[in-house]
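Case study 2.
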Amino acid sequence: MPRVLFNRLRTVLSHAFAFFVLVSGGLFVPALAAPQSLSMSLASPGPPIQGQPIRLILTILPPPSTEHPLHLHVYVDGRMILMTTAKGPNAAVTLPPLAKGRHEVEIAEADIRTHRGMGQMSTMEGRDNMDMGGMDMGGSHAAKMPESPAPKHFLTRMTLLVKGRTAP
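Prediction:
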């Protein structure tokens, strides 16, 4: 009789654990390691020009996949301007036109479900119409909250020197 009780208990506990993992969305299942290498380069030769979108190519190793994508937040001068999810070794992002001068571009990994920086406690919850390159992340919150600084754990950084337009 005790053996039957033990088998039933084991079955119930294994089902309870499976249900917990399913309900939690895998939040407690270890995530894959961060990329070992993420490089960023301009898609076109020559310096970026004021008033024109800037296309960047990202190279990620080991490469993410459709099953294990890499969610990235792109910051310009400390302000998040866009998000992208890489599903292969190369990804392209297009920055909005930037003013003439020096700009810092930084890329951070984030959790695709919560948008929290990996290893960070920051969150975008409570933000109202946060400017992210035209993406409306608005909510029904009445009070506007100040933007928090960009996370400190960046995968890569690049300094862009945007040139002014030349007269025709």
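The beta strands are 37-42, 54-61, 70-76, 79-86, 90-95, 101-109, 131-132, 135-136, 156-162.
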